[in-house]
């Protein structure tokens, strides 16, 4: 009960804040969020909006953080793409979708992903299939294909890339 009363009291005090108090509070929230890792301008704007920060305070503050380099959507997009590609094995199309959902402008997404080619996606898909191939060896070939297809499909690979990757690993396994 006390928790709920404290929250409602907090909401009431939020309404009576001066612009200077809002600015100070919003700066603290932004710095706190950015110390935990980079974020896009859109993600930070959503966070401030959720906390009730007036737009006339939030937008200039976000612009200032962007001007001094604390918010950099282009470097966020490059780092995000590199990290998700290595840690989760996401295809170029999946990265494009996730960056769009994070609020990165399409032009910056294109720049961040320009280093990845269809050949890179195929190579990544082959390595992902190879890691799982032996673990699925007890299954019939159709079941193995379905499992691997679903696995790669969830990572955003196209049907052609999925088939080529599975075929490549299967052929190398037969030759071994």
Mean pLDDT: 90
- Quickly give the structural class: mainly alpha
Count of beta strands: 0
Strand fraction band?
under 5%
Question: Sheet bearing the most strands, described?
Answer: none
Number of DSSP helices? Answer: 10
Elements, N to C (H/E): HHHHHHHHHH
Helix content: over 70%
pLDDT < 50 runs, ≥5 residues: 1-12
Instruction: Give Rg in angstroms.
Output: 23 Å
Gross geometry: elongated
* Distance linking N and C termini: 67 Å
Explain what this protein looks like in three dimensions.
The structure is a single chain. This protein is mostly helical and 176 residues long. The protein is 77% helix and 0% strand. The protein has helices at 2-15, 19-35, 41-50, 55-67, 73-88, 92-101, 106-113, 118-133, 141-154, 159-175. α3 runs antiparallel to α4 (55-67), α6 (92-101) packs antiparallel against α7 and α8 (118-133) crosses α10 (159-175). The N and C termini lie far apart (67 Å). Mean pLDDT is 90; it is low at 1-12.
């Amino acid at each position: 009960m006390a928790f709920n009363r404290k929250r409602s009291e907090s909401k009431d005090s939020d309404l009576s804040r001066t612009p200077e108090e809002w600015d100070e509070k919003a700066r603290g929230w932004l710095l706190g969020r950015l110390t935990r890792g980079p974020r896009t301008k859109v993600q930070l704007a959503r966070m401030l909006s959720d906390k009730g920060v007036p737009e006339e305070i939030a937008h200039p503050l976000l612009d200032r953080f962007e001007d001094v380099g604390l918010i950099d959507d282009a470097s966020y997009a490059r780092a995000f793409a590199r990290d998700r590609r290595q840690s989760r094995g996401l295809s170029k199309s999946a990265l494009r979708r996730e960056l769009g959902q994070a609020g990165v402008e399409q032009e910056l997404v294109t720049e961040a992903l320009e280093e990845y080619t269809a050949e890179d996606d195929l190579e990544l898909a082959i390595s992902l299939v190879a890691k799982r191939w032996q673990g699925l060896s007890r299954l019939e070939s159709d079941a193995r294909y379905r499992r691997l297809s679903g696995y790669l499909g969830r990572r955003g690979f196209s049907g052609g890339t999925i088939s080529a990757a599975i075929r490549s690993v299967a052929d190398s396994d037969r030759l071994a």
